[in-house]
Design a protein that fits this description.
Order of helices and strands: EHEHHHEHEHEEEHHEH
Bound molecules: BIS(adenosine)-5'-pentaphosphate
CATH superfamily: P-loop containing nucleotide triphosphate hydrolases
Structural class: alpha/beta
Largest sheet: 5 strands, parallel
Distance between the termini: 22 Å
Strand content: 15-25%
CATH class: Alpha Beta
Number of strands: 8
Helix content: 40-55%
Shape: globular
Number of helices: 9
Number of domains: 1
CATH architecture: 3-Layer(aba) Sandwich
Oligomer: single chain
Strand order of the largest sheet: 2-3-1-4-8
């Protein structure tokens, strides 16, 4: 049975950074719900138009939108051998829909990797985050800089700063996370699927802790 791995944690905990590395190690796709939504907003699709206002304010996009987006993406051929998802599920309703979907697609929930950091760390990290417009690679101007300055090391694409990485919006995202998403820690612990890792260490140290908790190192 193919496995699905979920990354859970507050904004800037390193979900995207670690999910990308695990995806390369396991050779299965990395699906980032935030990236799918930003892409829909950029393309001006109907779904993107509905999501835009919520995202700009740091609020969660309604469950029916994110659930249908996730269903469509996980059902594609490239996910048949398993996948890694960050940013979904984020509410108990999304978790229920996700578990039903896994069953219907014949996937097993491999593990939920919970990366935790403080709000102070989130604010300091997000002000320096830069993402690649072309391939989505994530950098930090101090902690993880691109060797090519404002171009991506992997593909040469242009790096940009996200609109929701302003201090006020980050604080809203963090409090929305505590209210809506933190209850999932208890939920996945009760299913015996949670692997908790501190996100306060360096990228490499977080990766080692994650791999050893998944017994992959
Ligand atoms: P999303 O894009 O998922 O944002 P997020 O959850 O707030 O998480 P981030 O992408 O900010 O952080 P991350 O944990 O991935 O960290 P990263 O690796 O980038 O969602 C955006 C919005 O979309 C939401 O606010 C909501 O509106 C909507 N949305 C998305 N999913 C939804 C859903 N399921 N339901 C409803 N709405 C949804 O790292 C951050 C920075 O820190 C980078 O610069 C990185 O280089 C650096 N860094 C990473 N790890 C370390 C480390 N260990 N040490 C030092 N620096 C580090």
């Amino acid at each position: 049975m193919s496995g699905a791995y979920v990354f859970l944690g507050p904004p800037a905990s390193g979900k995207g950074t670690q999910a990308k590395q695990l995806s390369e190690k396991l050779n299965i796709p990395h699906v980032a719900l935030g990236d799918l939504l930003r892409d829909a907003v950029r393309r001006g699709t109907e779904l993107g138009k509905q999501a835009k206002g919520f995202m700009e304010k740091g609020k969660l996009v309604p469950d029916d939108i994110t659930i249908s987006l996730a269903k469509e993406r996980f059902s594609r051929d490239d996910c048949k051998g398993g996948f890694i998802v960050d940013g979904f599920p984020r509410t108990l309703k999304q978790a229920e829909a996700f578990e039903e979907l896994l069953k219907s697609l014949g996937f097993e929930l491999g593990a939920v990797i919970y990366i935790n950091i403080s709000m102070e760390t989130a604010v300091s990290r997000l002000s320096g985050r830069r993402s690649c417009k072309r391939c989505g690679a994530v950098y930090h101007v101090t902690f993880n800089p691109s060797k090519k300055g404002d171009r991506c090391d992997r593909c040469g694409g242009e790096l940009y700063q996200r609109h929701d990485d302003e201090e006020d919006v980050i604080k809203t995202r963090f409090s929305v996370y505590e209210k809506e998403t933190l209850p999932l820690v208890k939920h996945f612990t009760s299913l015996g699927k949670l692997a908790e890792v501190s996100g306060e260490e360096s990228v490499d140290k977080v990766q080692s802790a994650m791999l050893s908790s998944l017994k992959l190192s």
